[in-house]
Amino acid sequence: MSNRAVTYGGVLLAAGVGYYFYQAGGDPKVAQKKAEADATKISNDIQKQLPGSGKEAQKDAEVAGQQISSKVNELARDAKSEANKVDAKLDQYRKDAGQQLDSAAKSAQKNTNAAIDSFDKNVTEGAEKAKKGVSSWFGGSK
């Protein structure tokens, strides 16, 4: 049962972080500020509802705000790390694609040159045969 609770808690936390990143347009600093503002607002609302716990509730809210802030910072670092990994993979894919294109271009050039050489050889042989045939009409021995 506790495993399920941890899973649901993680999903809710991820959804909350995603919500703040979405609202902030992907800027982690803005998302952090919004999360802190919301945490402060929620703690103030809770503080108003608790009788006689003004200073204690305020301290608890500050601790909760700091915990939320540290969690948002941690998630932002993780997101940046993942983004850097994705960028590295994309760079590797670009390099691999470039190498494959260079290889294909060299292969195509090699095949084209071989075809041109073959064509030139056939034309030269055909020209020599035609020259011999024409020379024989006029009495040439070549």
Characterization of this structure:
- The protein is mainly α and 142 residues long.
- The chain has one domain.
- 90% of the residues lie in helices and 0% in strands.
- The protein contains 3 helices and no strands.
- The chain has helices at residues 2-23, 28-49, 54-137.
- It is rod-shaped.
- Residues 118-131 have a biased composition (Basic and acidic residues).
- Keywords: Membrane, Transmembrane, Transmembrane helix.
Describe the structure in brief.
It is built from three helices and no strands. With about 140 residues, it is mainly alpha-helical. This is Calcofluor white hypersensitive protein.
Number of helices, where a helix is a run of at least 4 consecutive DSSP H or I residues: 3
Radius of gyration: 38 Å
Q: Structurally, how many domains make up the residues? A: 1
Quick one: how many beta strands?
Answer: 0
Biggest sheet: strands, sense, closure? none
